[in-house]
Amino acid sequence: MNSRRLNILLVEDDEDDYVLVRYLLSEIEAWKFDLEWVATYDAALEAFQRNRHDVCLIDYRLGAHNGLELLRQMGESGSRMPMIFLTGQGGHEIDVEAMKAGAANYLVKGQLDSPLLERSIRYAIEHAQTLEVLRKALKFRLEFEGVVGKSRAMERVMELVEKVADTDSSVVIEGETGTGKELIARCLHRNSPRRHQPFLPINCGALPEHLLESELFGHERGSFTGAYARKIGLLESAQGGTVLLDEISTLSPNLQVKLLRVLQERQVRRVGGQETIDIDIRVISATNENLEESVAGGAFRKDLYYRLNVITITLPPLRERVEDIPLLAEHFLEGLNRERQRHIERISKEAMDILQGYAWPGNVRELQNVIERAFSLTDSGTITPSDLPAHLVRKGLAVLPIDTRRPFKEAKRVYIEPFEREYLTKLLLECRGNVSRSAQRAGLDRSSFQRLMKKYSIRSEDYRDA
Question: Which Gene3D superfamilies match (predicted)?
């Protein structure tokens, strides 16, 4: 998010609130932004059609219409732009309706400040990116068909999902960031008897403790400063459906105790309230940490752990299902060809070897970004090693296994070509595109150096102003 300007759309009919939001955004030093302001429902629909915004802030009141109608309209149109709902005061049940309609978060105008706005926007965008990448990568459907990947590791995951989806057992989904934990949770819900009831996810690490408590359990009017009306919590709102508690390991000790009581008694009590409400929900938890280690270290309650962890689904990182990388990469390439109306036919064997030799700390999202970058840079119908990021080539080369199934010359070329390309580009960069000086430093005559440049489609002019 820091590397480019954010395009933000604000749908707000009050000019004073527009001025406030612009001011709060200007106080955020982490990134720059372009803010487009529209004041009506129809103008918002026109802005959505241009599809050039990274995130949208939507006010509830929009003249004859309201923000909920707009959220639902965008959901029905298939829009995946992350949206944040703005309300004049907290505590209204419309906030829950906004979450159900597809809002990534909601914010109360009277409580807005720059840090909260930054956190909300950052979470909304990153959350949407993760869902989009994993949605494209895995292509889950109700019948568990269309999974991109044939590795035994993913087969085991889907076999387990199929077995437990039809039960009410609590599930903990473990896996690194970007491995698809929320997508698997949604898959469990869609294939369960609760599929026609709400699926409500909440990121336990994205909110301060007092806000998270109100989000989960709800509150009564006057229970704390700013509680102007009763608020129904997510655990209550999900009646009959499924709740996903993402980043469950970040729960404070106080909230761990309260959640344990809810799971034991199947009842919830709103903050500041006396009434207990019976609830019928399925709880799925997700974490990128080892909960068992958190229990051993005293950071997570053992009794809550056993309540949540009836069944564990562990998602493999991309580096542990290397055989799926070609399928995922080709899948991303096909999607880019459709979206941008180009015809990049394939990824070369040498480039694919590098992709399969890289460790992918960012998992599927990182792979998609690399393919998109290569797609944008290539001048031919094939993605080659020269189109891949230099750091990936170096690391991929360093860990690339020697494939003895290949003839010696072919196996050797897998190592040599990335080295030659990286050597040439680095040398030209240091010599600011001066071919004669680069050739001299390389100990080659100019014509030999130029032949190597031509081999890898390297142009000296690209380095003269570097």
Answer: 1.10.8.60, 3.40.50.2300, Homeodomain-like, P-loop containing nucleotide triphosphate hydrolases
Which residue in the block uniquely carries the two structure tokens 């403790």?
A: 209
From residue 283, alpha-carbon distances to 148, 186, 260, 288, 301 in Å are 27, 12, 12, 17, 17
350's tokens: 């040498």
Domain annotation for the chain: domains and CATH numbers: 1-136 (3.40.50.2300), 139-316 (3.40.50.300), 320-463 (1.10.8.60)
CA atoms within 13 A on the CB side of 334: 9
DSSP H helices in 54-113? 67-76, 94-100
Phi-psi region of 79 (alpha: psi -120 to 50; beta: other; left: phi over 0): beta
The string of DSSP letters for 189-204 reads: HHTSTTTTS-EEEEET
- Contact partners, residue 112, CB within 8 Å, separation at least 6: 20, 21, 24
The Cα–Cα gap between 419 and 258 comes to 57
Strand pairing report for 242-246 and 199-203: parallel
Dump the DSSP string for 335-346.
HHHHHHT----E
C-alpha–C-alpha distance, residues 12 and 35, integer Å? 12
Q: Which residue has the higher pLDDT, 410 or 119?
A: 119
Mean pLDDT, rounded, of the chain? 83
Task: Note the pLDDT of residue 146.
Answer: 38
**Residues 6 or more apart from 211 whose CB is under 8 A from it?**
none
In the three-class reduction of DSSP (H, G, I as helix; E, B as strand; rest coil), residue 383 is classed as: strand
Please report how many Cα atoms fall inside a 13 Å half-sphere around the Cα of residue 426, on the Cβ side: 12
* Least confident range of 71-75, 308-312, 375-379: 71-75
For residue 278, what are the contacts with CB-CB under 8 A and spacing of at least 6?
Answer: 266, 267
**0.70 exceeded by the pTM?**
no
Per-residue model confidence (pLDDT) at position 145:
42
pLDDT in tens, 180-193: 788 889 889 988 88
| 364-412 confidence digits (pLDDT tens) | 878 988 999 999 988 888 998 888 988 787 665 544 455 666 677 776 7
Tokens representing residue 290 in the block: 């080892």
